[in-house]
Task: structure prediction
Amino acid sequence: MAKAKNKKRLLADVLSSKKSVVKAKKENPFEVHVNKEKYSIIGRKLKHDRGMPGVSRSKALKRRKDTLGQEYLNKNKTNSFKDKRIGEKTMSKEEAASARFVAERLKQIKTKEKRHSLFNLNDDDDLMLTHKGQTLEELEQFEDPVSSDEDDDEEMGKLDSEFTSSAHFGGGQEDGEGKNRKLAIEDLIAEQKRRKNEISKEKEEVSEMTQILDSNWRSLLPLMGKLSKDDEVKPKPDSYDRALREMIFEPVGGVSDKLKSDAEILKAEKERLEKLEKDRQMRMLGETEQSKKSTHRSADDLDDGYYQQQVVEDNQVLAYDLKGKHDDTNDEDISEFGEAEETKKSGSVEDNDSEMEEEEEENEGTNGEESSEESSEEEEDNLDDLKDESESESEVEEPKKVSASDQPKPVQITESERRKMMEKASAELPYTFELPNTYDELADLLKNRNSEYQNVIIERMIKSNHPKVIPENKKQMNVLFAYLLQHVNDTFVDATPKSINNCFMILDRLCPHLFDLSHINPEETTASFQGVIKEKQTDYRQNEKKYPDLDTLVFFKLASSLYTTSDFRHFVCTPSLMAINHILTRASVQSATDIAKGLFLVTLVLEYTQLSKRFLPSALNFLLGILFLSVHKKSVEVQRIIPPFKSRGATSELLVLSEDDDAESISQQKLIAADLVNPEINVSFKVRALNAALNLATDFLTLLSDNVGAKYFAEPISKILAKLQLEKYPDFVSESAQKVEAIIAKITEKKFTYLTNTNQKPKVLRLMEPFFDKVYDDKRSHKPGNKDTLVHKGMLRKLKREKKGAVREVRRDNAFLSKVKHKRRLESDAERKARVRQIFSEASLQQSELNAMSRKKKHL
Result:
């Protein structure tokens, strides 16, 4: 039996030892994938000849579950907890407890210090205790006697032994004097109070005497001379100091001094004009503010302050004294006072209007005999008067509050004075105007008016009907803009040498109003102006060889004043510039007006291109043509010129001076407005036209000096300048020609930089190095080449490989996430279906119970 037991024990040991041995896992042959090669090479070791895709796939899946799957599950979840306790993870329990104790104590100390600093008065020098205007530090410098309270306490504490023995230990019995303990204490208290009062009284007397001595000492200081800096005589402040003090104590503006908006300013201006117009209407009817007021007076009126009574009978002013007698001496004074009051009420604006009317009538009576210079001086005078008028209109004083005794006395005026006032008021311009419904209304309103009157009328019309005050007038302002353009056109249609200056004055006065109107409704006003340019260009194309009239050229000038010329493309300025180019290219020069109009257009081209620095060839060609017209042509020499100018013919020497012409005595240098409508060519016009062309050529060449082809623009002008006979012209023409030659010399000095190929590196000489031929090179080996090139290609291959691997991993991650989402969706659907089945089962049970209850009720 013993042997059998030993055998069983041995078998158990063997079995246990077999279980403990770890067997090596054998590869499943169905999971191993062998990568076969097309060509086998002896000695080559391959890394990827055998693989296990199933195992790799399972490992990748497990790795994605641990990383990407967990991130997807924790998406949009913020249930993380951070343990910020001191030493929770880095220290032991004892160290953490001591560290927390130290931190708590530091926190308590800081809190205590912070509270202590709030009530610490010694930290701030400004917060110092004072006594009677002096700080405690100053008081400590003097000898401060001990206070009376301390003396009293010391003396009161010194009691004799008899009082102590009798009062404290006598048992309350009467002493020899017949006083008990209570009476003795009361006497003691009374005695102490008396002594205390005497001491305080003595101190008050001492302080009063001290103050008297101090005051006497201060009174004696001036007699003793300058003993301190405070007694020095201060110098009187100069003008700078006084101005500085005035600026310091100048009152600061309050809320009432805020700036007004544009709408508020326009509204106030409209109300002011309406008030002035109402006053003018009253004066036209022969009424004044005083006469319009009620003159009813009660019987109890004592007439305080009135010493005279005025009565109007049969156009006579009667004055009576207090006794009832007539006083003739006051009649003239009263009439003069009435005229003065009426003059004050009419205002300076009406006076200016009447003066302008008289000047206009005088100018019409002269029938245009005065020269253009005198007319320009009159226009300047009218402008000054109108400025004074606007200033007087703007100065509207607020009504002052006066007492009953200070109010002016009611004054009656005579019938003749009333008639004069009515005539004067009717001759004045209205202060408010309605917007015209038709162009004829506006034309009748501005007819036979000079530039200043037209300016005032349009200004008052816009202020009275501005869209910021009346929004309904926004569309009507566009109509007014179109009417003003038509008015400008009609003004320049029949322009003559005598009226041309007035036409340009009207344009100058209306241009600011047109600018304001163009910004009220930009889209519609731009379309209106663009339509005018198209219409003028269509009319010109009917006869392209002739220069258009001034009613066309003036709109090109107006376009540059109202709109920007620096834009690359503009709805108004770009068509206007193209129209000017067309005119300068096609229109032929036949007379003085053509030359003046051409120079006017060239000036506009300079204005259009000055900011954008563009180049218009027709403008330089026209200036070249003007110089060509000033050069004498020889019969043998052939000179070429670009059309529209002709090299031969009667018009090829329009500006050439003859031998009989005396040009040196001419002093005027610039062209005038009358040259645009005067077809005659005289010596003065020839000189001024040549000088204007030279000045414009200087401006154009200066503007184009930075251009690459500026040399080719300047060469033709330089050749014609060499042929001009400048000795026949005045000195200012020679100076203008020298300026052109100087800018041409500056341009021609510049050298061109020709385009060349880029410099290439020289080839390196071949070195005597041996050349090795490769015996065998399969397609996996790299081609021979430069080292940098090979490295670059190798990096590209690695980049491509990594990119493909990254794309593959991203694709697999997306597939994994889609599977996870699909699995979660199936789980949620299964859970929802289970809940629905449960709900249906519970509902069926409830329904069955309900049916059973209903059946029982029926049987009952």
